[in-house]
Design brief:
This protein has helices at residues 44-57, 75-83, 100-110, 124-131, 135-147, 167-177, 203-213, 280-285, 288-300, 318-321; strands at residues 11-17, 61-66, 90-95, 114-118, 151-157, 181-184, 216-218, 230-234, 240-244, 258-261, 266-268, 277-278. It is α/β, with parallel strands linked by helices and 323 residues long. The chain has a single domain (11-321), classed as Aldolase class I (TIM Barrel), CATH 3.20.20.70. Strands 7-8-9-6-5-4-3-2-1-10-11-12 form a twelve-stranded mixed beta sheet. Helix 1 (44-57) packs across helix 9 (288-300) and helix 2 (75-83) packs parallel to helix 3 (100-110). The radius of gyration is 19 Å and the shape is globular. The two termini are 22 Å apart. It binds S-adenosylmethionine and iron/sulfur cluster (SF4). S-adenosylmethionine (SAM) binds at residues 20, 26-27, 65-66, 68, 94-96, 118, 155, 157, 184, 186-187, 189-190, 318-319, 323.
């Protein structure tokens, strides 16, 4: 389906939980207690029903995210249900990777074809300082996923003064394992005061720095997973490096192809605007046409661009919205 600005919307990012087993500085405000009640989380059957309604409208790409999606005990049931939808083009998961190693084989059998794995640092102490987690488990998860032919992309949030020493090692690691790495500009989604303007590093600045060290060649047609990154090839390592600059790239929203579903059943047409449509009563009615109607409405109401640079004030942290 096409939105009012001519964009083809065929990608649904589904947050299956707002819970997480990490505490990333930029995502979860310190001391956060605003979890949805378990009862507010959609059931596996409801999530699959929404994805099926989306598939009937022409959605072809689905990504399961959170919070940490692999914390859901019924995650494989959700993945299997969506993995079996007619016309499906891709089913992926976004994960911090902590639980990836033991689940990789079953994820692959359930139809998960790609995993975006957050990796903000390779240094174990720094990784723990930023996320609270154990990087060795994440690296084991990445290897296990690749061994199951799950296509892995690495995600690193740019934090000036905090993980700048890690970008070059991450490029080397990405080249070594044959996975693209994407550098993501910090978005004002957390209320954590520790992340002010001084933490922001633009993708243009990083790209210029990397390019000065070893030339970056643009990869105009490389778009794995149909995400928002624009890619270059680092000539020193051969790594494919993507940049997601939601804040500083003026035409960033022009190629947006997605809607988001929050863990508590709200459709969010744009990450950087507060508008949401509640699916709960449509789900309660049991009428599949009611879900299709709200999905179509969310597409019709999709704004032209986000308001991160003007009047956006964080209300719900990223873990609640589904990154
Ligand atoms: N827990 C999973 C993970 O960490 O990949 C999935 C959910 S997480 C919210 C999805 C993505 O959002 C991660 O790549 C994370 O780095 C990114 N993210 C979270 N908060 C962000 C922020 N304030 N700015 C930019 N990216 C953010
Ligand atoms: Fe959890 Fe992912 Fe947010 Fe980190 S970025 S706190 S792993 S949801």
């Amino acid at each position: 389906m096409t939105d009012p600005f001519g964009r083809n919307i065929d990608y649904l990012r589904i947050s299956v939980t707002d819970r997480c087993n990490e505490r990333c500085l930029y995502c979860m405000p310190e001391g956060y207690k605003g979890w949805a009640q378990k009862a507010d989380h959609l059931t596996a059957a409801q999530l699959v029903a929404i994805a099926a309604a989306a598939a009937r409208l022409g959605f072809r790409k689905f990504r399961l995210t959170g919070g940490e999606p692999l914390l859901r005990a019924d995650f494989l049931e959700i993945a299997r249900g969506i993995g079996a939808l007619p016309g499906l083009h891709s089913l992926g998961v976004s994960t911090n990777g902590l639980k990836l190693a033991p689940l990789a084989a079953e994820l692959s059998r359930a139809g998960v074809r790609s995993a975006n794995v957050s990796l903000d640092a390779l240094d174990p102490d720094l990784y723990r300082r930023i996320t609270g987690g154990d990087v060795a488990r994440v690296l084991a998860g990445i290897r296990a996923a690749q061994a199951e032919n799950i296509f892995v992309k690495l995600n690193c949030v740019l934090l000036r003064g905090q993980n700048e020493s890690e970008y070059r090692p991450l490029l080397r690691f990405a080249a070594e394992i044959g996975a693209p790495v994407r550098f993501i500009e910090l978005m004002p989604l957390s209320r954590d005061d520790a992340l002010g303007a001084s933490s922001i590093l633009s993708v243009a600045e990083l790209r210029a720095r990397l390019h000065a060290e070893s030339p970056l060649e643009p990869l105009a047609d490389y778009r794995p997973g149909h995400g928002p990154a624009r890619y270059w090839r680092d000539t020193a390592t051969g790594a494919h490096v993507g940049f997601i600059g939601a804040i500083t790239t003026p035409d960033f929203c022009e190629s947006c192809n997605k809607l988001r579903l929050t863990a508590d059943g709200k459709l969010r047409p744009c990450l950087g605007r507060h508008g949401e449509l509640d699916l709960k009563s449509a789900l309660a009615s049991g009428d599949p046409a009611a879900l299709e109607h709200l999905l179509a409405r969310a597409i019709a109401e999709k704004p032209e661009d986000h308001t991160f640079n003007t009047d956006y004030a964080p209300a719900r942290p990223m873990t609640a919205l589904g990154g």
